[in-house]
From TrEMBL:
<dbReference type="InterPro" id="IPR001977">
    <property type="entry name" value="Depp_CoAkinase"/>
</dbReference>
<comment type="function">
    <text>Catalyzes the phosphorylation of the 3'-hydroxyl group of dephosphocoenzyme A to form coenzyme A.</text>
</comment>
<keyword id="KW-0808">Transferase</keyword>
<feature type="binding site">
    <location>
        <begin position="11"/>
        <end position="16"/>
    </location>
    <ligand>
        <name>ATP</name>
    </ligand>
</feature>
<keyword id="KW-0418">Kinase</keyword>
<keyword id="KW-0963">Cytoplasm</keyword>
<dbReference type="GO" id="GO:0004140">
    <property type="term" value="F:dephospho-CoA kinase activity"/>
</dbReference>
<protein>
    <recommendedName>
        <fullName>Dephospho-CoA kinase</fullName>
        <ecNumber>2.7.1.24</ecNumber>
    </recommendedName>
</protein>
<dbReference type="InterPro" id="IPR027417">
    <property type="entry name" value="P-loop_NTPase"/>
</dbReference>
<comment type="similarity">
    <text>Belongs to the CoaE family.</text>
</comment>
<comment type="pathway">
    <text>Cofactor biosynthesis; coenzyme A biosynthesis; CoA from (R)-pantothenate: step 5/5.</text>
</comment>
<keyword id="KW-0173">Coenzyme A biosynthesis</keyword>
<keyword id="KW-0547">Nucleotide-binding</keyword>
<dbReference type="Pfam" id="PF01121">
    <property type="entry name" value="CoaE"/>
</dbReference>
<keyword id="KW-0067">ATP-binding</keyword>
Length: 194
């Protein structure tokens, strides 16, 4: 079974593209979602997060996402420490999950792939792109976030110009029909290569 990475900056449309692959029968691992589940369920992560952020890291037993986001996205050192706690656990969880899947290939959707220099862990990497202003507009519409909050996250991610040369397949996600056609094409190419 092949392991494919699907990445792209915030608001590029990773989840939208992942859903298109899912409709083609491809098992998808959504790292953002699974990371948050693990931050909720793993006692080890909980303890480390409370050590790092204090008791406010959890509120009524639930991960205090707003507080953690506000703390880390303007503090690269703190973000690095958070990443160091969460990413290895997510990686292990993904590997275990992939071993239970029965398909020609699976996709790990993750915002931080080239940032973590993780391209070597995948057979192929798909990069989703869209112009920065388009991404900001989408996020302003989707989330209850300010432009500054969005830019703070973007500033902790690599620019597309750095990621483009590292990707095997690129999907410029502007027109959804074109994106869907590109997904079909990449799906065939992944099934074909050995
Ligand atoms: C700070 C947290 C609690 C905020 O949660 P929230 O629900 O607001 O955002 P969510 O996790 O859904 O992420 C949305 C987007 O933000 C960006 N983002 C998230 N984490 C990071 C990060 N560590 N570095 C840069 N960008 C990030 C990505 O583009 C991601 O797709 C959460 O993002 C987090 O715990 N991040 C650190 C762990 C991590 O890297 N998770 C993502 C993949 S493993
Ligand atoms: N081609 C498109 N045309 C119009 N809207 C789109 C397009 N692609 C995605 N969107 C919308 O833009 C928003 C962001 O898309 P999506 O959630 O797929 O991005 P993402 O890269 O997964 O974001 P994040 O990094 O925050 O997880 C969503 O509301 C989605 O419906």
């Amino acid at each position: 079974m092949k392991i494919i990475g699907l990445t792209g900056g915030i608001g590029s449309g990773k989840t939208t593209v992942a859903k298109m692959f899912e409709e083609l029968g491809v098992p998808i691992y959504n790292s953002d979602l699974e990371a948050k589940k693990l931050m909720h369920t793993s006692k080890t992560i909980r303890k480390k997060l409370v050590d790092l952020f204090g008791e406010t890291a959890y509120q009524e037993g639930k991960l205090n996402r707003a507080y953690i986001a506000q703390s880390v996205f303007n503090d690269p050192k703190l973000l690095k420490r958070l990443n160091k706690i969460v990413h290895p656990v997510v990686r292990k969880h993904f590997v275990k999950w992939s071993e239970t899947q029965n398909a020609p290939y699976v996709i790990q959707e993750t915002a931080l792939l080239f940032e973590n220099n993780a391209q070597g862990l995948y057979d192929k990497v798909i990069l989703v792109t869209a112009p920065t202003e388009v991404r900001i507009k989408r996020l302003l519409e989707r989330d209850n976030a300010t432009r500054e909050e969005i830019l703070a996250r973007m500033n902790n991610q690599l620019e597309d110009s750095k990621k483009l040369p590292l990707a095997d397949y690129v999907i410029e996600n502007i027109d959804l029909e074109k994106t869907s056609a590109k997904v079909d094409e990449i799906h065939s190419r992944i099934l074909d290569f050995s």
